[in-house]
Queue: 2 jobs
Job 1
Amino acid sequence: MSKRVAVLTSGGDAPGMNACIRAIVIACQKSGYEPIGYLHGYNGLLNQEFVSLSLDSTHNLIQQGGTILHSARCKEFTEEAGVKKAAANLVEAGIDALLVIGGDGSFKGATYLSDYFHGQIIGIPGTIDNDIAGTDATIGYYTAIDTAMSSIDKVRDTADAFERIFLVEVMGRHAGFLALNAALSSAADYVILPEHFESTDAELKNIITQIHAQRRLKGSVSFIVVVAENVWPKGLPALTEALNEAGITDVRPLTLGHVQRGGAPVSSDRLLATTLGEFAVSLVGTSSNNVMVGEVNSHPVTVPLDKTSDSKPLNSAQVALMKTIMNERYDC
Ligand SMILES: Nc1ncnc2c1ncn2[C@@H]1O[C@H](COP(=O)(O)OP(=O)(O)O)[C@@H](O)[C@H]1O
Ligand SMILES: O=P(O)(O)OC[C@H]1O[C@](O)(COP(=O)(O)O)[C@@H](O)[C@@H]1O
């Protein structure tokens, strides 16, 4: 039987969201479903703002960053009246299944919506932060690592020329996946992560020890510290000042910011987005409901939506690498 399948993108946009929309539309066409796209995240549900999606709308889309459906954060949707209104609008529009591409906040919203909307709801993980439990990676994460890595590569050139210390802040909200991978792949000298942060005093002492040890060995060389956002109290200016006070001068802070959310998705994100978009549509009409689709060990899986905000540990092998290759590289 033909079904109306709606998709929306919510929360922080991530490279590969468009690739996922493309896969959803193609899979819907193949199954004889009618795909429609709600605009501006959950705001689209509240304002009944949607467009019909066709193969025309997905042409040349896989390589585009951002999201053709636009994204938003929507306060009204966090309140009961808003969620009820969204559910009523979905029923009025004859939607059988709603696919939500977003992060853990969007999945909390989707879980809330399921109390009032009795059609099918399926989440697809899309965030550069990779902070969603039940999937090895989220759409956009691999591209963001590459963007941060290539930015740090460029910083290294000028840092080397001036033999300076650079502090580079990387996104991740409250998770260190992006910072750790950006630091490992760009051969940073030190990384500060929320999962391993002890205290400002302990981190400061360790950074200074590593700088002195490296300089004793190699002379006056550059030193790059990757700092996950929201970890250091009062941010990079406070860390710069603390280093200056400890006699480490010529320190330059740099916040990479939203550049990490943009750009054409790398192949791993396109493949993940395509796999998960197609898999989500394959579940339409089955008993799978209020689940997120994810990928574990290269296989598609489903996870209850309310389990996706469980804590997700960093990869332990990468943490071991961090210790030997970066933060505890020189014995002192
Ligand atoms: N606890 C919640 N209840 C209902 N809706 C929520 C909740 N948390 C987030 N949302 C909705 O999901 C949107 C996106 O969440 P946000 O945390 O900003 O991004 P992300 O989905 O990328 O984590 C929010 O603007 C809000 O509309
Ligand atoms: O775009 P905003 O509202 O400034 O939000 C920035 C936050 O969004 C992100 O880029 C993505 O986070 P979400 O996917 O959870 O929305 C975080 O890394 C960052 O902390």
Job 2
Amino acid sequence: MQFNNESQAQEQKRVDQVEQIIQKQLQNNTDNLAQAQHERRQIELNYGANTRANYIETDDIIETNATLQQQRQLMTSAVSNEVIFQQKQQALKSLVGSPYFGRIDIKEDGEQDTLYIGTSSLTDNQGQFLIYDWRAPIASIYYNGTLGLVHYDSPIGKQEVQLQRKRQFSIRQGQIENMFDTNETIGDEFLKNALSQTSSAQMKNIVATIQRSQNQIIRNTTADLLIVQGAAGSGKTSTVMQRIAYLLYHSRQNLNAEQIILFSPNNLFSNYIAEVLPSLGEKNMRQVTLHTLLARRLHGLQIQTPFERYEQEQHHFPQAAQQVRQYKDSLDFVQALQNYAQHSDISCAFNDLIFEGQIFFSKSYIQQIYQKLPAALSSADKFLQTKNHLIKALKHRLQKEAQADWVLEAIDDLSTTEFQNLEQQKHLSQYSSDHQQQILAHYVLKRHYLPVYDALYNDYYFDIFQLYQNFLTQLQPPKMAATVWQETIADLQEDLERHYLQLDDAAAILYLRQLVTGSGQNRHIKYLFIDEMQDYSALQLAYIQNSFPQAKLTLLGDIEQNVYAPKNLSQERFQTLTQLLPQKKAALITLNQSYRATAAITNLAKQFIPSGAQIQSFNRQGQTPTLFQTTAANLSTVTGQLADKLAKKHRSVAIITKNIQQAQTLQQHLGNQVLLLQEESTAIPDGIIVLPVYLAKGLEFDCVIGYDISAANYQTSGDWGILYTIATRALHELYFTSTPKIAAIFHKINPQTLNIQKLN
Ligand SMILES: Nc1ncnc2c1ncn2[C@@H]1O[C@H](COP(=O)(O)OP(=O)(O)OP(=O)(O)O)[C@@H](O)[C@H]1O
């Protein structure tokens, strides 16, 4: 419903009042913040002075320690004061100019109330709410409810209210530009407006226009495995970012951003989403790519990246290699690995522990310890008990050596500084001289045998690579020639010799290590998010889950955007997820409405994939996509000219190729006004860029040109998913260029959804 001027004037009056209050609070808070910063700096100065205190006399040490302790407490409280004012500052600043976007009129327990909703809450001096945070329980009815009797979940249980009015605002620089009353979830007009904007280098938050199905994902706190299958552009990533903000708000007391981790497809994407949470007044969660995690944990080895693998497979991917890849991606492979870890005798992978060129613990000694343990114990327990046994044996050896001549000599040789440190840590002077001697001997011995301790704690006597090879050797993948499998094992051996590991093997080795040794788990993480989950194999997912065993999982993806997977694997992947992950309360939410692109683009793109009929386009008008056909010799020039023309009207124009080599060749042809994005790139510049499809994952551009969609380039039905991914990166305009013989899928396209122009 549109408004008369009087209603709008009344609303504008309220906006003005709220704006004034925000400015006033901002001023007060700036003063408070400056004061808190000053106090913190003073304490820092004192702290510095005290740390230079006298450490020679025992009394001085005790006194200095007490003072330091006190200073530390003061510092902690000063820092936390400052953080509170900083957060408030950020929240207030985010309200300036656009304090809220929604209003609801409700009747609850017979009482009438009007609530305004914005990105964070604001109260006046009497504690009355002027704005409610969009994450407050009551605000959920703004997103969910149509008018009438509605419910919302509050800390004291389900509440029932009459929703009498829902109003949306667009307020900029303190002026109401537009306002609407709506009976629906968030009205089309506002959404259309938000979606018609040009692209930006950073993803924006969507709090003002969250849709009902997205809201279900954002506010779900019951599922411990939430799977979101959503069409391209349906808002999966946006939703997940708002979900993180929601979770942080709701569990303020026992959840912080450090306990949330998001697996993202690449660094460009990580950078693209980095501003969403700060724009909502929250700190960013941790972000990692699978490759970074693997490389960090397999330090010293070079790990194949998903992009390298894709590129290699583009050039050479024979039938046998495809078969191996399919098997290593399958649930069967994961189960075989789990089974092996649990039930096999892993003692073959123990090694002699060498110290100063001599065997310290022999392989057979370690094997005996392991094999004597009860068979019913889990592998990880057996491993741990073996390790504990070795540590005990080392301690025993240390005790026996305490009186050795070299130890006594080493005690005599201790420096004054070492003595002072020991005095401080162990309070030597409190003990009898015999006891002091024992402490010093223990210190000297521990220092000497530190490499042995190190080897024990870091499992250097255990060869995980050997164990993995043994595991592969005893496997017989179904329907695969024995020679193919043996070759795979030989390839692994060769890779290891040159300190290289393929992506599949890296994850499998780490997973096996985790299962067998029980190490490498991070129990601190409470929420784990995986975006573009269709790109992960069953094993990679199992490994990630096991790495963060306490985390609730949210997995998002689109089975159709399976750029990396050999065809038909993805469907299987989704079905096996619930089998694979031990979570109990699983929920699956499907998003079929695509928001990113104009209806014309979505209606074309959905024809590239088998399940396209389910995808609903958003009612936003735009030009019909166009395909330019030209000769092979002219293809780059035609693409460049088209890009130039588009760049005059739009902020971002992306030419998307099938692989890096095509991107490089094209960029060289087009010259420096076109920027090539590569695996190492971290930011998306304005203007014309050229990039391979896998780097475009999760991103969006005003205009997209799918380069060279000729039959020679896109040959099999497995390639249609790639075309779908390319097409769905476009917000406003979509083009393709090709040589005269176009990919077969284009012959099946409804001619009304694609213009074809033949050029020379
Ligand atoms: N409720 C919404 N309000 C406003 N904009 C929205 C909404 N939902 C999605 N969008 C916009 O639609 C576009 C696509 O969203 P997003 O990138 O989150 O989708 P996605 O499902 O992760 O896409 P893909 O799988 O293709 O990477 C973004 O520009 C986002 O801002």
